[in-house]
Structures are given as structure tokens and as C-alpha cells.
Specification:
Mean pLDDT: 85
Structural class: alpha/beta
CATH superfamily of the largest domain: EAL domain
CATH class of the largest domain: Alpha Beta
Radius of gyration: 40 Å
Number of strands: 21
Largest sheet: 8 strands, mixed, barrel
Low-confidence stretches: 603-612
Strand content: 15-25%
CATH architecture of the largest domain: Alpha-Beta Barrel
Distance between the termini: 146 Å
């Protein structure tokens, strides 16, 4: 305060309490410090970014996630995220659209490039920052590296949709694609597809003989062969076990599908090499076009498609190994239910539904019948003739093979004894009866054989028991004991299907074998390579060294006969001479005297006598 002469008189003081303001400034400063600490030390990336796609700020964690040496390196190097960051450039416009719509995104997932070019998955949480007037300033958000989580999800999804062993689509994914194909066919009458259902023939032999590990390795190689047969548009799936399915898109006719099936059979024909051993595997294929070839009617559900493909596959197995069958109404009218088969199989003996057929085995060069193989057939009252490939495995699984096998052996021995008493054969002619693994290990087998021989009055030397080679791959001491006991009572022993059970000649020394049958897979192909015939010739030579007989089965043509004769094989079996015969037909054959004319090159025009 001043007087009139401008001299100070007093002071007027105003005091303002700034405590609250200073505390607020201090709190803000501390908050900024804490934010900076969090910003610098956060484990997740934090950033501010312009709408044009370059960074205003970035913390060390973000630089580390994206592979840059420092935030400054990231900001100066990464100037256009749409081109430099995102694997798919369109993801940036998609991100902007979401931000414009809601002003924030909570979990925007994208695959991005790191500085070194490697790829990772990130999740963005971003919000828009505006000024007091509401104008856009920048995007602010966080980045999390979710690569491990994404890979885990992908692995989980893969395991849910793909077979872990072969890498093929599994049943779940295959049925999804089948449903999509059916939807396309429903929308477009000119578009079609075909379903192929494959079941490997006698694959169980591999698992039982060499274990599931070798079986799995074989399945991988088989899936590779099948892939090589297909086009990129086709879908191959493993449905489980040894079952595969193929979706042929665009296949118009059953004929086109049969061409593909033939290609698959050819692809599987060549041996598989595993652990220095050769494996021969074939497949039975059921074929179902999406539209009925006669009516043009389209299937309505994939369940019906799969059911009919399964039925067609069983019909293919009924025809024999490496066969295909196109589904039709006749196959649909007689579906084979395994449960129903098992139920009826338990009653077939008491109903007299089984029948034995006899296929001759011919001595070379005389053409005389050296023996017969007894083959069982089941005439079902509703389904007609059922192949042994369908009911024998069920009999083995349920234990019914023991009573069924006894019936077969008793009937076969009785028939041979009848031919002997009628003077049609002498005791040099044998009767071969197949014995399955469960029968061989049955404690009463030798006793059963003795009882049957006594009841039928047949000499033990006239009976030959045939076992598959795969049985020898079990407990050698146990198997040897069973075979020795059979041998002790005078019964002959033969290894059936030799070449498919994966045993070696060196192991045969352990077993009291009288003969072996060379599997038909070495003989049946119409155009055999010299290597195949060399294999047969080697087998025949080694049987001579072991002083056991050799029988070539599956001979169907004169060309095969001539080649087999060149190998020196002394016994031959196959449709070139005769199909399996009824007892009456076999008796007529014996009365005629055999097949000398078929073995005489001068009579090369003589027709085979299959079905005498």
C-alpha cells in the first residue's frame, strides 16, 4: 500500500492454500513415473500408433516380441504395418473397420512377421484416443504373443480332425466333407461324387504275427500308396484300424470308379518292404455312387452312403481278395450284420447249413490227383452263400472255430474214407484240412483228431493238417510242441499261404513240416515278372533241400502253369484244373482219372475243367 508521495505504507498479503494442487501434481507425476515403469518393464507389448500404420511409441516388450533390438529400432524400421507386419495385408483394413465400428477391439488375432522374417501369432487389444473435441489422436493398445497357444489349439484341432498315425483326415473330417459333397450334389444336378470304402485283406495277420508297431508302419506305407493313386481334389481318409475311405469328386459313372479301384489294386500289388521283409497286402473295395445308376435318385444322408459302402465292401470280400464291388439293390437287400452272423453261426451246425467242397491238388507231371483240400461253405437260409472270409474270423473271435473245425475235419475224413472204400482212391491220396490258430492251441486237438480218425476208420497218414504261416510267428516252443504231438500220431503237416506270414526258411527247420503251399499272390498276376518266377523257383529249390513238398496254389491260366512247371514245383492247385467241387463232382473227376491232358503241351487247346 502506498501514500500520496508513493511511499510504501503497508503490505496487503493474500494467502492461498496450494496443498491439494501440489498433492495432485505430485500424484500425477508419480502416476506418470509408475506408468513409465510399467511401460518399460511390461511383459506384453504396449504401443501408440497412427491410423496410417506407423508407431508413435513402443515399449521394449513389443520390440522383443517383434524381434527388434529396441523400441527406437522398431519405430524407425516398421513404418507400414499392412505390408511389413501382417502376413495377410488385408488384415489391416479389417482391423481399421472394426475400430471404426466400435472404437476398440479386445482380441484381434493375426499372424505377423518378425524382423527376421519368422512368423508368430499375436493378439491385439486396442482402443482409440481422442482429444477434448473428440477428434482422433492415435490408437493405443497392447500386443500379446499367442504363438504357443495358437499352436496348441491347432494341434488340438488337428488331433480332432486328422489321424495321428497317417496324417490323413479321420472319420470326423471325412464325414464333414462327405456332407459338403452331398450338399453340392443336391444344389447342382450335374455335379456328382462317389464313395469308396476300403478294408485291407488279412491285415490282422500282420498285427498278430509281428505286433502292432510293424502293423502301424505298414499302414503308413499303405496310406502313401493310396495317396499316390488319387487326384488333388479327392479326399482319402483313415476311418480306423485298417479301414480307409475315398471321396472321388466329379466321378460320373460306376465305370470311372472301377477304373480308380483298379488303379488302387495295382498300386497295392507291389510288395511292401519293412525290416528286411516283404509284405503283400490287398484291399477289398466297396463303391457307392451318390446317385443310383438306374434311377438317378440322390442319397439323402451320409449315413446311408456309408452303410451301403460297407455292404458293398463285404460283398467284394465275398468274391475274394483284391476285389471291388459297386453297390446295387441286391446287395442292399442282404446286409451282413456281424452280430446277426454270429447268432446264426451258432446254429448253422445243427441246421446243417455248412457244406464241404473239395479242390484237387494235382501231381506234376502225371496229372493225377494227389490230394484234395476241404473248403467249407455256409449256405445261409436268407443271405445265400456266405464266404469263409466273412464268417471264419467271427468263428475265431467267438471260439466257434473249435466245434466248426471239428465238423469240417470229421466230414472231410469221412468223405475220403468213402472214396477209398469205393475204390476211387488209394491211401496215397491225402485230404488237406485247414486248422486255425485257436484250434491248434486247443488242448484237445490231438485227441479230437484221434477220435475222428478212429470213427471214420481213416489212416492218419491220409490226413494233412494245413496251418497258415502266420501261426508260426507265435511262441515257437509252444507251436513246436503242438505240431510235434500232431506229427507223432502220423498226421501230415503243411504250411498254407507261404510267403505272406513273414517267416524264414531257417525257422522252418524247427517245425516238423511235410509240405508248404506257395501263396497265390506269387502266381495270380497275369503278367508276372521274371523276378517273381525266380522267387518261386528258389522256394521250390529250398523245399527240396529241406526234403519237404511244395504246392503252388492259384494257378488259373496255361501261361502260369507252364511257368510253374519250369520252376520244378511238383504239386499244383488252382482253377486252371478245377474249382472246388462237391463230393459228387469230385467222385466223377476221380473216375475220369485226373488231368493228364492238361499237362500235355500237345493238348494246349484243351479247356480247363473248373466246375466238373
Amino acid at each position: 500500500m502506498y501514500d500520496s508521495q508513493n511511499q510504501p505504507l503497508s503490505f496487503l498479503v493474500q494467502v492461498v492454500d496450494l496443498t491439494r494442487h501440489k498433492l495432485a501434481e505430485l500424484a500425477l507425476q508419480r502416476a506418470e513415473e509408475r506408468y513409465q515403469v510399467l511401460f518399460e518393464n511390461a511383459t506384453e507389448g504396449i504401443f501408440q500408433m497412427t491410423r496410417q500404420g506407423y508407431y508413435i511409441s513402443a515399449n521394449p516388450a513389443l520390440a522383443n516380441i517383434l524381434g527388434y533390438e529396441s523400441p527406437e529400432d522398431l519405430i524407425t524400421s516398421l513404418t507400414d504395418v499392412s505390408k511389413q507386419l501382417f502376413l495377410e495385408p488385408m488384415r489391416w483394413p479389417e482391423f481399421l473397420d472394426q475400430m471404426d465400428e466400435s472404437g476398440e477391439v479386445a482380441d484381434f488375432v493375426a499372424q505377423v512377421h518378425r524382423k527376421d522374417g519368422s512368423l508368430i501369432w499375436i493378439s491385439l487389444g486396442v482402443h482409440t484416443v481422442v482429444d477434448a473435441a473428440g477428434s482422433f489422436l492415435y490408437f493405443e493398445g497392447t500386443v500379446e504373443d499367442i504363438t504357443e497357444r495358437q499352436q496348441a489349439e491347432e494341434r488340438l484341432l488337428y488331433s480332432a480332425l486328422y489321424d495321428s498315425l497317417t496324417g490323413l483326415p479321420n472319420r470326423t473330417l471325412f464325414t464333414t466333407r462327405l456332407q459338403q459333397a452331398l450338399g453340392l450334389a443336391q444344389e447342382d444336378p450335374d455335379w456328382s461324387f462317389t464313395l469308396l470304402f476300403l478294408d485291407l485283406d488279412r491285415f490282422k495277420v500282420v498285427n498278430d504275427s509281428l505286433g502292432p508297431l510293424v502293423g502301424d508302419q505298414l499302414l503308413v506305407k499303405i496310406s502313401d500308396r493310396l495317396r499316390a493313386c488319387l487326384k488333388d481334389a479327392d479326399t482319402l481318409a483313415r476311418l480306423g484300424g485298417d479301414e480307409f475311405a475315398i471321396l472321388l469328386e466329379g466321378a460320373q459313372t460306376p465305370e470311372e470308379s472301377l477304373v480308380m479301384a483298379k488303379k488302387i489294386h495295382t498300386g497295392l500289388h507291389h510288395p511292401f518292404q519293412l525290416q528286411d521283409q516283404e509284405f503283400f497286402i490287398s484291399a477289398s473295395i466297396g463303391i457307392v455312387p451318390c446317385r443310383d445308376s438306374k434311377t438317378g435318385e440322390l442319397y439323402t444322408t451320409i449315413e446311408d452312403l456309408l452303410r451301403d459302402a460297407d455292404i458293398a465292401m463285404y460283398r467284394a470280400k465275398h468274391r475274394g481278395r483284391a476285389c471291388s464291388q459297386v453297390f446295387d439293390s441286391s446287395t442292399h437287400s442282404s446286409p451282413l450284420s456281424q452280430l446277426q452272423l454270429e447268432t446264426d453261426l451258432r446254429r448253422c451246425l445243427e441246421r446243417n447249413e455248412l457244406q464241404l467242397l473239395y479242390q484237387p491238388i494235382v501231381a506234376v507231371p502225371s496229372g493225377k490227383v494227389a490230394s484234395f483240400e476241404a473248403l467249407v461253405r455256409w449256405h445261409h437260409p436268407e443271405w445265400g452263400l456266405i464266404s469263409p472270409t466273412e464268417f471264419i474270423p467271427i468263428a475265431e473271435e467267438t471260439g466257434l472255430i473249435v466245434p466248426l473245425g471239428r465238423w469240417v475235419m470229421e466230414e472231410a475224413c469221412r468223405q475220403l474214407r468213402t472214396w477209398q472204400t469205393e475204390g476211387l482212391v488209394d491211401e496215397s491220396v491225402k485230404m488237406a484240412v485247414n486248422v486255425a490258430g485257436p484250434q491248434l492251441t486247443h488242448t484237445d486237438l490231438v485227441k479230437q483228431i484221434q477220435e475222428i480218425l478212429q470213427e471214420t476208420q481213416l489212416a492218419a497218414s491220409c490226413l494233412r493238417v494245413e496251418i497258415t504261416e502266420s501261426i508260426l510267428n507265435g511262441d515257437e516252443n509252444e507251436i513246436e510242441g503242438h505240431l510235434e504231438r500232431i506229427k507223432e500220431i502220423g498226421v501230415k503237416l503243411c504250411i498254407d499261404d507261404f510267403g505272406t506270414g513273414y517267416s524264414s526258411f531257417s525257422r522252418l527247420h524247427r517245425f516238423p513240416i511235410d509240405a508248404l503251399k506257395i501263396d497265390r499272390s506269387f502266381v495270380i498276376p497275369s503278367k508276372m515278372s521274371e523276378g517273381k518266377w525266380d522267387i518261386i523257383k528258389t522256394i521250390v529249390s529250398l523245399t527240396g533241400d529241406l526234403e519237404i513238398g511244395a504246392i503252388a496254389e492259384g494257378v488259373e491260366t496255361r501261361e502260369q502253369l507252364i511257368q510253374i512247371q519250369k520252376t520244378g514245383c511238383e504239386y499244383i492247385q488252382g482253377y486252371f484244373f478245377s474249382s472246388p467241387l462237391s463230393s459228387k463232382e469230385a467222385a466223377l473227376l476221380l473216375q475220369r482219372g485226373g488231368f493228364e491232358e492238361l499237362l500235355n503241351p500237345a493238348k494246349s487247346e484243351v479247356l480247363p475243367v473248373a466246375g466238373v
